[in-house]
Amino acid sequence: MEPTGILLRALVFAAARHRDQRRKDALASPYINHPIAVATALWHEGDVRDPVALTAAILHDTIEDTGTTEAELAAAFGAEIAAVVVEVTDDKSLPKLRRKELQIEHAPHLSPAAKLVKLADKLCNLRDIIDAPPAAWPHERRAAYVAWTRDVVAGLRGACPPLEAAFDAEQARWAAAAAGA
Ligand code: NDP
Ligand code: ZN
Q: Which fold has domain 3-180?
């Protein structure tokens, strides 16, 4: 199918799967805003035109957060897109700290498309931590999250220089705000 058609089907699919979920910010934004932001960052800031990466970005949290299976994604969107989503999915049977460590360890070994999705995801979550953070998080927890995104992105460098520059600009914005706090 034509890439725009697949992307639109992915939007419908992800919106349905995330329909009852909210982000953790004070306004409890609709969850689907986040995958849309990740795909938009890839297109507009990363100049990414790969339909597999763009579609996987829309679907990137469906397995981890909605119980969607790889088989469902493969049937609807093809094995290639499903495999990228699996690559960016944490193993939720592991303790949270180990999952965080594994993201750092796995980052350099991801496929090119999965690196793009992971990088845009970290960029968007960093922006959320600065502009619309989880309501109950104290500064220290936000700072720990920001530092962790830096460690994950260190293993993704070279995948998409313009997105890396955008990420570095957000890290600088965080540091400036923290210094002024
Ligand atoms: P979580 O994994 O619990 O939450 C962060 C994730 O929530 C993001 O990766 C993002 O994932 C999603 N998310 C939803 N809404 C938002 C939003 N508005 N802004 C940002 N992210 C959002 O966080 P951590 O457990 O990693 O906590 C951060 C740091 O704080 C850790 O590195 C840890 O060292 C420290 N800490 C953790 C504690 C804990 O109990 N876990 C307690 C004290 C400190 P997605 O893209 O998948 O939606
Ligand atoms: Zn995400």
A: Hypothetical protein af1432 (1.10.3210)
Give, to the nearest 10 degrees, the angle between helix 3-17 and helix 70-77. 150
Cross-strand partners of 134:
25
How many A from CA of 121 to the centre of ligand 2? Answer: 5
Catalytic status, residue 101: no
The yes-or-no answer on residue 64 being catalytic is yes
- Residue 8 CA to residue 134 CA, distance in Å, equals 29
Report domain extents, the chain: 3-180
Is the CB of 24 within 6 Å of ligand 1? yes
* pLDDT digit string (tens) for the chain, length 181 residues: 699 999 999 999 999 999 999 999 999 999 999 999 999 999 999 999 999 999 999 999 999 999 999 999 999 999 999 999 999 999 999 999 999 999 999 999 999 999 999 999 999 999 999 999 999 999 999 999 999 999 999 999 999 999 999 999 999 999 999 998 7
